[in-house]
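Before relying on records like the one below, remember that each one covers exactly one chain. Contacts with other chains, cofactors or solvent are not represented anywhere in the record.
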Amino acid sequence: MTTATARFVPATDRTTLVLESMTSSHSFPFAGNFRLEDYAHGLLLVNNEDVVEAGSGFDRHRHAEMEIVTWIVSGSLVHRDSLGNSLVLTPDAAQRMSAGTGITHSEYNDSWTVAGDRHRDRLHVVQMWIPPDTPGLTPEYQELPTDAVAPDAGLVPVATGMPRRLDATPGRIHNRYATFHAARPAIGVHVAVPDAPFVHVFVTRGRLSIGTSEVDGTTELGPGDALRLTGRGVGLVALEPSEVLVWEMHAHA
């Protein structure tokens, strides 16, 4: 039986890469010669928060055997891939890419091409990776609507592979042991984080209290802070308008 634990990971504990056109903060080791699975929490291998200047981004590159969810915090993301998809994503939608046997794509902040008039808005995204539970799948791309993630809605499932959640969740990921949730609570709204063998909580904006308890002496979470939970959930209450991303996982990578 898994012992229930909770670990607070402050934003300052992340590895941060600062470039001229981008700042990238990594919740898990991401660059180098190592196995992502060795550092995973549950199934979550990568949780990268990127702030990208206008006109910059990631040139065409390849992925395989990975489920990749990209969440738009602010700005606009131009996505193009080898399946023929070419579109602009804003915070009204996230994206899911099942790399399967192999997919190439590029992602850019071309913010001035979206509204017509040239402007210099930054793009702020969180990109998350989990492995599929079946290898050799045909690559897929899916836009994930986020309109249900409303200020009064609490925690909302956005993408899942778990059979019991499929009917109530718009997005699909190819891992039957995982669900990706999100919340955008208004002040005072309660967010119930589920009990599961592994849960990862990540705050993109705002400030929340950890119910009536504390984790590692901490009672509040702010931007970039995370909780790594094992065998338990928590209750969060928004102290200001906030956004929280939650992975519920019932297996380890």
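Residues 112-115 form the longest helix (4 residues).
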